[in-house]
RNA sequence: CGGGGUGUAGCGCAGUUGGCUAGCGUACCUGCUUUGGGAGCAGGUGGUCGUCAGUUCGAGUCUGACCACCCCGACCA
């Protein structure tokens, strides 16, 4: 094992691929673009499922399961949907020893299969809203992969709702987005910008899409959560109608929203540093690791006892803790656990037994402090909260420092090429301007922020009057 | 699917104008000594050199095809 260089624009890609494997989070699957989540990595995903799952349920969406095998004819029902997804579909044409009469796709997303049931289940306004969720795997044949960030198979949750009115659907969009923002910022400590996608960036088949956009340490943007307003596009294709109070038949208004294992990539590439992973306490599978240190057999017994005692106390107080009795030098263990991103390390040595204290070392700023046994639990609880806040604040400052403002295209190109990060700049709304900027600078619109995304100015590309002020940037 | 690159031990790499038993670091196993910031010594395990074909007395090394992965583009959560 070796030490890692500080991640920067030049080597962040190698650092990332290295660190996720060294930390025992991730391994490559045998088929290109597939992943193996190891216990440490899956624990993080499980923590996400627990927190986010509870929030989704509070929002009124209940878990379901729909098949991963979807008839091809379902996917082709919504015109724009199939146009967007066809290049990414995995199609089964041969099974059970014979050619299938109708090809079957492996779930690229579940709109079509779910909505074919919505049309059965929804008859009356009394059946609305219908709100469901599922935690499943997804297959989209990608040409280019990056662990967690983009893969052929990934895990996600997808929530789907149907409403009686457009207003209700819009309300659902807002509540889902604020749920997501809270999740990212309070749980993963990842600051996100919420906003509306431009038409060219929206989900295939949506009326409009909204998203949570993160800025990672290499200055690239990441769409880390999406919430789509599907309008009546799918309800018309799938014939999802209900009889309203006024005895008129109407099509439902729908939304769908999801967060995937991509969030793990965002997590790692938001907080990681030159020593490896940095995990916010709320998602860290291990919040506290105890490293015992001794010189001889007599010390060893005392220290083992004290370590065991501290470990039990931590567990009784619902702190996720482990001790490390591996036969390695303490320094080796310090580096190992720092690389794996554990928020707090406790060192227990002869001096600590003698003084009725322990040493607390925090991962985020690597500060060490001596703490008396009596105050241990309070100190650790405070520290966990403090680390969580500090990580968020640090990440938010990074986003602020790397968000630029300009109305000059030369400056714009220069910023994108040399500084990277986000650029807030006006856009006239013309697809061609958006595309030209992309072709010339590689920057795309990330979203039009709900906060400070409008005003009056001139388009960064054509110079015409503009009222939209999207965030631009290179993206994964 | 276009341009570039790389395939040699779990991981990272070296291997000269074709030559003898394919090497180094690290990891791993055994033993002893160690343990407050990546320990030391001794011994040991581990390879059809990406695949297939060709040239040659002889191929990790040369030729061709194929495959995989990585980087850069087009497409996307």
How would you characterize this protein structure?
With 476 residues, the protein is an alpha+beta fold. It has 3 domains: 12-271, BirA Bifunctional Protein, domain 2 (2-Layer Sandwich); 288-398, Rossmann fold, CATH 3.40.50.800; 403-473, Translation Initiation Factor IF3, CATH 3.30.110.30. It has helices at residues 12-22, 39-58, 72-75, 79-85, 111-121, 166-187, 233-237, 262-271, 297-316, 330-339, 350-355, 376-401, 409-419, 431-441; strands at residues 26-28, 35-37, 62-63, 69-71, 91-95, 98-106, 130-139, 153-163, 193-196, 208-215, 221-231, 241-243, 249-251, 253-260, 288-292, 321-323, 344-348, 357-362, 368-372, 403-405, 422-424, 444-449, 454-458, 465-468, 471-473. The strands form 6 sheets. The chain has an 11-stranded mixed sheet, with helices on both faces. It has a 5-stranded mixed sheet with strand order 16-15-17-18-19, with helices on both faces. Strands 4-6-5 form a 3-stranded antiparallel sheet. Helix 2 runs antiparallel to helix 6 (166-187). It binds one RNA strand of 77 nucleotides through helix 1, strand 11, strand 14, helix 10 and helix 11.
